[in-house]
Amino acid sequence: MILEESPDGEGGGGDGFLLQPADGDSVRKGCNPLVQTQRSRLQNHRARINQQINKEMRMRTGAENLFRATTNHRVKETVALELSYVNSNLQLLKEELEELNSSVDVYQNESEGICVPMIPLGLKETKDLDLATPLRAIRTPSRNEAGLDLLMEYYNHLYFLDIRFFSPNRSLGVFFHWYDSLTGVPSHQRTLAFEKGSVLFNIGALYTQIGARQDRGTRTGIDCAIEAFQRAAGAFNYLKENFSNAPSLDMSVASLSMLVRLMTAQVQECVFEQLTLSGTPREPLSQMRLAQEASRVEDVYSLVYQTMVQPPVRDYVPFSWTTMVNVKAKHFRGLSHYYAAIALCDGPPVADSEIPKYEKAFLQFHITVPEGPSLPVLLQDSEERRKLAKAHLRKAMMNHEEALRLHAVCRILRKMDLLQEVVSLAHRRSLAKYSEIDHEDDFFETAEAPDVHPKTHQKPEIKTPNFSQVKVTDIFHRLGPLSVFSAKNQWQLKGPIHLTRGEGGFGFTLRGDSPVLIAAVIPGGRAEAAGLKEGDYIVSVNGEPCKWGKHSEVVALLTGVGEEGVDIEVVTPQREEPLILVDKKATTLSSAGVLRSDKENGGQVTLPGSFLGWNKKAKRGQGLKRLQPFSPSADNTPASR
After folding, report:
1. Which of 486, 530, 474, 482 is nearest to 506 (CA)?
2. Does 515 sit behind a cis peptide bond, omega within 30 degrees of 0 on the bond before it?
3. CA angle in degrees (0–180, nearest 5) for 186-102-151
4. Residue 315 above 60 pLDDT?
5. What is the pTM of this model?
6. Rounded CA gap, 537 and 518, in Å?
7. DSSP classification of residue 622
C-alpha cells in the first residue's frame, strides 16, 4: 500500500492520509480505510456521554420525585443540594456533547489571511454493510473531490442493487445503519431509500467541507467556495423534495430547509467577499453597492437565524451554529451601515450634471427615506452628508458591539479567535471613522439612520446533483438483463434440456435478444415434448451462457449442432397474466437450419427511466407504493399506502 498525505480534517470518517492501492489492491481511489478506526472512536465517545446523561437524568427524576413526596424539611434540603449537583453535571455533559457534535472549527481553511469562518457539516457515520467489496469501499469517502466521485458512484450503484434484489412485495433482512450527523443518534432501516438518502446527505455535507476549506483570499478560492456551497444546497434540496419520513432529525424536512438556507447564505457571503478582494472602492456608487450587498448578506443570515430558533430545529441545531449565524447577521448589518457612511462622507460634492444619476441610486438605497433635507440638498451639502454618515456609523458600531457580545456568550465560539478578530477589526474601523468625522462643536442630536435596502448582483443558485457525470457499470451484469433478472420478476430455471432435430426442426421460433425469447412452440414438435413453453428465455446453449447473447448469435449456436442434439437451459417467467406477444415476425428454425425472417432483431433492452426516477416521493396510486422511503413504522419496514 502507498500512504499519501491528504489535507483532510478530523472527525468520524475524516482522514489524515489517503490510502492508494499499489498493485491491484481493493482500496478504491477516494476511499479512506482509516475512517473505520476514527468512526469507532467518535461513536464510542458519543455513546459514553449519552449513557452518562441518561444516568444523570434518571437520578434527577428520582430526586425530584422524592422532593415532591417528602414532608421532612432536612430531607428536602439534602435532595435540593443533590439536585443542584446533578443539574450542574448535566449541563457540563451536554456542553461536552455539543462541542463534540459541532463541527464549526473543523475543515476551515488554513490560509494566513483573515476570513470569516463558514459552517460545514460533518458526514453521517455508518456501520459496515456486508455487500460486495466495491460497495464497501465506497461507504468510506476521503474528504475531497475524489470522495465526492466515490459517493456519486455508490449512489448510482444503488440503482442496480434496488432493481436486482429489493422486491416491492417483501423486505430483505439487510439493515442499513446510519448515525445522525450532529447528535450521533443511531438509526436503522431495511429500506434502501434510507441508504440512498444518507449517501445523498453525505454528498451535500462533503460539499460544505470543501467549500469551508477554500482560501477565500483569492478569486479562485471564492469561486470554488461558491460552487461548493451551491452544490451542497442542491443536494439538501433534492433530498428534501424527493425523500420523506426520515428516521433521523438531520434528514427531516425542517432541518433540510434550514441547511438549504444556510448554504445559500454562505454563498451570498462569498459574493460579498468577491467585491472586497481589491479593497474598499473610492467611488461612492461602488461603496453604496457594497453596502447593499452587505445588507443582503445580513438579510439571508437573519432568515437562517429565524429558522434555527423555531421548533423543532431549535432543539436540534448546536447552540454554536445559532450563535454564529446571529453574529454574522449583526456583523454584516454593521458593515452595510459602515459602507453607507463611507459613500456619504468620503466622496466629493456631486456635480450638477450627475445629480439625476445619484438621485436614482439614493432613492433605491435606503429602506425608508432618511430624516432631514431633500435629496438634492443632501447630495450637494457636505455637512448634511456628514451628519447622515455619523448616524450610519453609530448603527455600525452598535451592531458590531452586539456581535461581539453574542460571540462572548458562546463558549465554543470563544475558542474561534478568527471570528472575533474579524468583528473586532470592523468595530475598530467604524469607531476610527466616527472619531474622524466627529466635531467637538457637534451639539445636534444625531438622527436615526434608516437601514440599507438589500440588493445583490449575483443570486445564489441551487444546483441539483448531476449523477450522470459519474458513469457506472452494473456489478451484477453477469446475472443477466434487468428486464428479466430483477427482483420485481419471478422466474424458474429449467434444464439442461436435451433437444434433437425432428422433421420440423427443433419445433420453436425465436424473437428478440438479450435474452432471446421463445416466441412460439410448434404443437407436436420436439420442443413441446421436452417441456419448453412459449415465453421461455434461453440462457444457455451447450453450457455456454447467452443471457446477453444477440439473436443471431443464439441462432448460430443452435443451427451449428449436429445429429447429437443440443442441451439448453431456459428460465420460465412466473406471470400473473398470460404473456401476450405483439411481434408476429418471428424466426423459425427449420431442419435445414435456414432462417426465414425479414427482421433479425426484435429489440434492445433499455433501463426503465433515468437513474433518479425511482427516488422520488410517491404521488398517487398503489403502483407507486414501493417508492415511499423512510418508513415510520415500528419495525422499520416500508409502509404501504
Report:
1. 530
2. yes
3. 60
4. yes
5. 0.71
6. 6
7. G
